[in-house]
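yo, NUDIX hydrolase is done. seq:
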Amino acid sequence: MNKWKTLKSEYIHKSPFGNIRKDHCKLPNGIVIDDYYVNEYSDWVNAVVITKENKIVLVEQYRNAGEGFFLEVPAGKREGNETHEEGLIREVKEETGYTSLSKPILLGEFMVNPATQNNVVKTYLIQDAFKRYDQYLDDTEDIKVKLYEFDRFGDYILTNKIKTQLFTVNAYLLAKNFILEKQQQ
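structure:
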């Protein structure tokens, strides 16, 4: 297999939330695609946050494209010159008011959707979390913090008892696997 060749790129839209780029691409077989759209986003971070009482800290918020309320792990993007870890800690603090004295553990880094997006999501585990702050939300955010038993949360996912998204499912499974492996050592 060979890579595609980008012949030309132009921006259709730019905003603080992300850009839309239109590429003209030549495939290895010679076919030219004149309108291949790429969504450019900042890298995202998210975390499974677990309290000392073994509760998972989640956020519930309205998602316009999904036309409903979704239960999710805290997440966001880096700002300025923040490292991924710094952006994560800030996002968790702002969205939930939770923090931890333990350093976040990187569980994985994945392309979000390499067919149409250029960013990655880095998933972390934060253990021994405790509530220390009030939420500090942007004007466009309306977030409720919800706590669930960590060990039971997978059942809620598998039985569709909650409305969530793929990033939360992936993060939960990565965290559960990490914790099980650690317990077996």
